[in-house]
Amino acid sequence: MTENLPVHFIVTFFINRLKSSINKSKPWITLHPQPNNLVHDPQSLTLASSDYGNMVKEIPAAVLQPTSINDVVHLINYSYNNPIPFPVAARGQGHSVRGQAMAKNGVVIDMSYLRRNRKTPGITISRLRSTGEIYADVGGEQLWIDVLNAALAYGVTPVSWTDYLYITVGGTLSNGGISGQSFRYGPQVSNVVEMDVVTGKGNMVTCSAKKNYELFHAVLGGLGQFGIIARARIALEPAPNRVKWIRMLYTNFSAFVKDQERLISFNERKQSNALDYLEGLVLLHHGSPDTWRSSFFPPSDHPRIISLANQNSIIYCIEVAKYYDRHTQSTIDKDLEVLFDGLDYESGFKFEKDVTYVKFLNRVRSGELKLQSQGLWNVPHPWLNLFVPKSRILDFDAGVFRDIVLRRNITKGPILIYPMNYSKWDSRNSTVIPDEEVKMKTQRQWIDHFGSKWTNFRDMKMKFDPKYILSPGQRIFNV
Ligand SMILES: Cc1cc2nc3c(=O)[nH]c(=O)nc-3n(C[C@H](O)[C@H](O)[C@H](O)COP(=O)(O)OP(=O)(O)OC[C@H]3O[C@@H](n4cnc5c(N)ncnc54)[C@H](O)[C@@H]3O)c2cc1C
């Protein structure tokens, strides 16, 4: 049933070893007369020259603290019409890992300032009279956790998430926005209906798949290269109340992969017997079954899980979730039984939790707060995210998990691995699914990364940001 699935796997390593490399550079730009709300104080410059990765430091000349999107329009216009245009980067939460939201000697837009100080609502929930569809109009600076809470107040919710919700809508839509829901609902970039974008020429443009579609698709997954997302309209659906959250342990990688693929083969959006979420983890023998990003396993079961990991050196865990509400609570257990029938996990190693929808979606937050309280959140995060083609996933286990990670004892951080369906990605968007590492230093490597999409990506840059003003920290055009 699963052989012909066009599946790619995302593998995420959270490696905590590398040291930071700090690039000390001097700002050179003098802005006169200056746009509104530019600041140069050390505290603002320090914030704008740091990110979650803690490995890159690029000092901007100034930071824009906008109180409305007009301030952003004004700034980009000012740069575009300057004899020497200066680089500009939107900084959402700065949760990039390699300086992608920085602008050396340019201006960083502190989008969190806009979130805190805007005079108009940042999130509005509405129903389209013509079709009855419900959607959220959301400022690019808004956090996904706030979008969730605002939508739930109306009994609705976005359907596609990231594991962590304290990041901005503009930040994830510039990348892709993936999680365990992507196999069924597509990444976040596949769930946007319309946007307002400030282009690199300083124009505010409304775009959708029908109107100004080139800009729309270029911006989605466009790494901030074509415009600043001022507003995104996000599709919403009725919200469930509760979640059955289940993990199953495997000692055999082939069986683990086969079962993951089988479970995501039920993937139609409206399919009632499909799972809502599927991810996977790699557990190594020297670690605890739980990691900072999730405490799941009952403490009383830790010894036997550790024993299974010790016997096998490395074990694998399928993590799934199925949502339910009062209409489906009498059938949820039976539905899951049918879905799990014939799975090849280790007997006695299935663990289940029943939690609220919010607790499930916001599951990484408690780990973050704990690390913050221990002063361990702001450490270097040399994370690696890869898409691996299905055809090479067994080689990846043998060559990387076993031969490198395990043998050389490289990481104690979480390793996630989960499949997605290629068909859920909109090929018109800028996002690409490469089979190689995404961090690249030269334009030649970016050309390889984008493959057949490169020509269009470059053409869109010429059209919407011809002076190479936006998001220089991605190092695509500003190498
Ligand atoms: C703990 C943690 C867990 C994560 N889990 C996931 C996950 O499960 N799935 C996933 O997909 N990602 C995940 N991420 C990665 C995250 O989605 C990206 O790093 C995202 O870019 C962070 O958003 P941000 O608001 O911090 O963006 P920033 O780091 O501030 O910016 C990222 C890029 O987007 C540009 N940008 C920011 N705002 C805008 C805007 N309004 N318009 C245009 N461009 C803009 C910036 O210039 C920059 O180039 C995780 C990150 C962390 C720290």
CATH-level-4 superfamily name of the domain at 7-15 and 241-424: FAD-linked oxidases, C-terminal domain
| Broad shape | globular
Strand order of the largest sheet: 16-13-15-14-18-1-17
Please name the CATH architecture of the domain at 7-15 and 241-424. 3-Layer(aba) Sandwich
Q: How many angstroms separate the termini? A: 46 Å
Based on CA atoms alone, the radius of gyration comes out at 22 Å
- For the residues shown, what is the average pLDDT? 90
Largest sheet: 7 strands, antiparallel
In this entry the ligands are: flavin-adenine dinucleotide
Structural class by secondary-structure content: alpha+beta
Low-confidence stretches: 1-8, 13-28, 434-439
Number of helices: 15
Query: Fraction of residues in helices?
Result: 25-40%
Question: How would you briefly describe this protein structure?
Answer:
The protein has 479 residues and is of the alpha+beta class. The protein has helices spanning 42-48, 69-80, 111-117, 144-152, 169-173, 182-185, 213-219, 253-264, 302-312, 332-340, 357-361, 365-373, 393-406, 443-450, 454-464; strands at residues 7-13, 38-39, 62-64, 88-91, 107-110, 123-127, 134-139, 156-157, 192-199, 204-208, 227-235, 237-238, 242-250, 277-284, 314-324, 350-356, 384-389, 415-421. The radius of gyration is 22 Å and the shape is globular.
Provide a descriptive summary of the structure in words.
It is a single chain. The chain is an alpha+beta fold and about 475 residues long. The chain has a domain at about 5-15 and about 240-425: 3-Layer(aba) Sandwich (Vanillyl-alcohol Oxidase, Chain A, domain 3). The protein is about 25% helix and about 20% strand. The protein has helices at about 40-50, 70-80, 110-115, 145-150, 170-175, 180-185, 215-220, 255-265, 300-310, 330-340, 355-360, 365-375, 395-405, 445-450, 455-465; strands at about 5-15, 40, 60-65, 90, 105-110, 125, 135-140, 155, 190-200, 205-210, 225-235, 235-240, 240-250, 275-285, 315-325, 350-355, 385-390, 415-420. A 7-stranded antiparallel sheet has the order 16-13-15-14-18-1-17. It has a 5-stranded antiparallel sheet with strand order 6-7-11-9-10. A hairpin with a 4-residue loop joins strand 9 and strand 10. The longest helix has 14 residues, at about 395-405. It starts with 6 loop residues before the first strand and ends in a 15-residue tail after the last helix. About 40% of the residues are buried. Flavin-adenine dinucleotide binds near residues 174 and 177.
